[in-house]
Structures are given as C-alpha cells and as structure tokens.
C-alpha cells in the first residue's frame, strides 16, 4: 500500500491506496499555505501512523527537477524549499511529487476513461485550461518540470498587417495572460476566459454555465462565441495529438460537464489531426475527485502503470 496526498490551496486530501486503486482511511486537513514548516509538519503528522510506507503527492504546482523546489501559486510558503528532500528526512520514507494535472492523466490512464492506452493526454477545462501527458505509460519530465501545459504559449496571434491596436482588438481575441504573454489559449478557453471571450464577441455579461446553456439551445450570440472558442481550442489540441501520438483524451473540469461541448470539440479535433479516425478521441473523465490521489499512487514502481 501507499500513502497518497492530493494537495490544493485549501485542503490536503489524504488516503491509503491499495494496488487495485481502493482507498482507505481517507480524510482531509487544511493546507498550511504560508509557512513551509507548518506544511511539512501537517504531512508528517498524517504519515506518522504508517511507518515506512512511501508518500506520493499530487500538487497544484510544478517540482523543478534541478532544484527540487515546488512552484505552487496557491501555496507560496513552499516556494524556496526542496520539498521532497525535506519531507523524506522528516518522515523517514520515500517521497514522490507530481503535478496534479499529470496525476490526473496518469490516473485516468491506469484506472479511468483512458485505461488500456499507452499515450494519453489529459485535458482539464476548468477555471483555466491545463493538461497532463502520459507517454508509454509514464509521465514525461519536461524542462523545469513542465509538461502538458497547452494553456500557455501564444496561439492567438494578430496578423502582422494589423498595426492599429483598435483594429487588432476588434479582429482577434488577443488578451494578456497571467503568465506574462498575450494570446495564450488560457486567455479564452477556461471558464472565466470564456466569459471574457463572450463579451469580446458581442455578448452580454454571462456566466460560463449560462453561455454553454444558451449555446446548447441554439442562441445566435453564444454560437458565435463558441465558434471562436472551438476554432482555437481544437487547433491547439490537434497540435498536441499530432506531436504526442496520444490515442485518447480524458476531459475533466467544469466545462466538461457539457456533453455537447466535449462531443463537438472531439469532432473538431478529429477534423484537424493527421490520422483521421471515426472513433471518438475525447472522453469525459470518470474518476472525479479521486484522480489526484490515484494518479499520485502511480508515480513510482510500487503501483506503476502498465496497460499491457
């Protein structure tokens, strides 16, 4: 068995995980976000009743493989701490740390909607847009620990002949991104960004849920908004699939609750990739809140993923 924790900005979700994915003794405690010592002590306390069992962590952040530091925007207290090393010393056990989106993709590949597939791209359509990449059954460590982040890198770019800022603003949805760039997919594709995109396209202030409902009902303005959303999101995802060879895309996050959105995005992506297929590639994820813990369990050889 393993000890696994899914750590967000509000709570640490903690459980014992069996090799078949069964969870035991699951409970949650508040996440100490501002102080590294309190953060480490909280995990040490959770682990104390279980001597020697490895601790696997899914966290809303990225571990830099060169420094061991974890950059988690909603847990600033651990920013300059070699977290895995500190936790291993304090708890006297093996510690492994994975990004929560990567763990989501790994969990869906091992236990969920992508079970049996070696190459999997997990897509999160939530407040923002994110992703996790599993190749040949394993998470691929990227530069600085970053992999699968299709939300950041400019995909909305103004043609060079448009030099007037007002003309650019009226022609393409070119918005500033929180990462410092402009035109990232995250600026239009997440739930909050969809609301901004709707205003840009000529709509009135609406929640993302209302926009999707209006679109499903055939509303003309919502259809205009979603046509822009679908164009950029499907293009970015088609690039990902062409490069990675992923054969299935489990989709999670609030926007994925719309079956029609997932189905329409799936068709748009399949129209754009190099290897046409009549079989759906996008599937709604099925593990829900268990994905972080189950994906963390698959980070090491104790519960490694082998689709064969």
Automatic annotation (TrEMBL):
GO terms for molecular function: ATP binding; metal ion binding; N-acetylglucosamine kinase activity. Its EC number is 2.7.1.59. It comes from the Bacteria. The keyword Nucleotide-binding applies. Pfam families: ROK. It catalyses: N-acetyl-D-glucosamine + ATP = N-acetyl-D-glucosamine 6-phosphate + ADP + H(+). The keyword Transmembrane does not apply. Keywords: ATP-binding, Carbohydrate metabolism, Kinase, Metal-binding, Nucleotide-binding, Transferase, Zinc. PROSITE patterns: ROK (PS01125). This is N-acetylglucosamine kinase. It comes from Acetobacter persici. The lineage of its organism: Bacteria, Pseudomonadati, Pseudomonadota, Alphaproteobacteria, Acetobacterales.
């Amino acid at each position: 068995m393993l000890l696994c924790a899914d750590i967000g900005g509000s709570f640490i979700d903690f459980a014992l995980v069996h090799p078949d994915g069964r969870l035991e003794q699951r409970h949650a405690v508040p996440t100490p976000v501002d102080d590294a010592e309190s953060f480490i002590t909280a995990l040490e306390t959770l682990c104390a009743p279980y001597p020697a069992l490895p601790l696997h962590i899914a966290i809303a952040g990225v571990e830099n493989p060169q420094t061991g530091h974890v950059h988690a925007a909603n847990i600033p207290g651990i920013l300059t701490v070699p977290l895995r090393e500190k936790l291993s010393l304090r708890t006297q056990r093996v510690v492994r740390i994975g990004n929560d989106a990567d763990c989501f993709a790994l969990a869906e590949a091992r236990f969920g909607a992508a079970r049996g597939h070696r190459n999997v791209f997990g897509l999160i359509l939530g407040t923002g847009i994110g992703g996790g990449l599993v190749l040949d059954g394993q998470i691929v460590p990227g530069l600085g620990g970053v992999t699968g982040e299709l939300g950041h890198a400019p995909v909305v770019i103004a043609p060079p002949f448009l030099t007037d800022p007002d003309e650019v603003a009226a022609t393409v949805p070119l918005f500033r991104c929180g990462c410092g760039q402009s035109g990232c997919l995250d600026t239009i594709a997440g739930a909050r960004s969809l609301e901004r995109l709707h205003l840009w396209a000529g709509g009135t202030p609406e929640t993302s849920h209302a926009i999707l409902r209006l679109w499903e009902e055939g509303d003309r303005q919502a259809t205009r908004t979603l046509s822009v959303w679908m164009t950029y999101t499907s293009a970015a995802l088609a690039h990902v699939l062409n490069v990675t060879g992923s054969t299935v895309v489990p989709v999670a996050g609030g926007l994925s609750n719309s079956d029609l959105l997932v189905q329409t995005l799936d068709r748009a992506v399949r129209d754009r990739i190099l290897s046409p297929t009549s079989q759906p590639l996008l599937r709604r994820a099925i593990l829900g809140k268990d994905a972080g813990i189950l994906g963390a369990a698959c980070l090491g050889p104790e519960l490694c993923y082998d689709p064969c």
